[in-house]
Amino acid sequence: MKKLIVFNLDGTLAESKSPLDTEMLSLLHDLLRIVKVAVISGGDWVQFEKQLLSYLPHDEQLKNLSILPTCGTKFFKYSDGWEKIYSEDFTKRKKMKALLNKLIPEFSVRLGGMTSIDITKPGIDKGYGIRKLQTTLGIPINEMIFIGDALFPGGNDYPAKEAGVVSIQVRDVNETKQVIETIIACLE
Predict the structure, then answer these.
(1) Second CATH level (architecture) for the domain 4-187
(2) pLDDT attached to residue 88
């Protein structure tokens, strides 16, 4: 069996921008008892706190959980609290905002959180996040499974599949629950 199960957040573990339901939280907690898990999303850390982390029990199982906000440009692991392993933040973001304000005055340009203007470097996608999981955790891509709801060409999960990870397409949160139950049954 694989050593790492990677999930998309919205549309896979939770309805878009909503917290995980109690059944999904229980399944995810059970999964964390037996295998390493990573959750990757285009959203920032705050989204993970609101949808996932504030609802999971704060116990030893969290040491098996990796969080990859903004498609893996940030990486968090749990060890007596959440620890940022790396963060590839924009530098001189205020200067960029000032320049954009001049170039596109018909738009409102805002700095969101610590890292975003909702613009990323080329190639920053979930495939990038998968490769960062490989190098940071030392788990080969062929030892991972990615589960997402948009694994079709053009979907935001498709780059994970292109990175070579075994991928499971799910329709919705309920189908994800069935996949997790199956993985737990196979691993136990």
Answers:
(1) 3-Layer(aba) Sandwich (3.40)
(2) 86
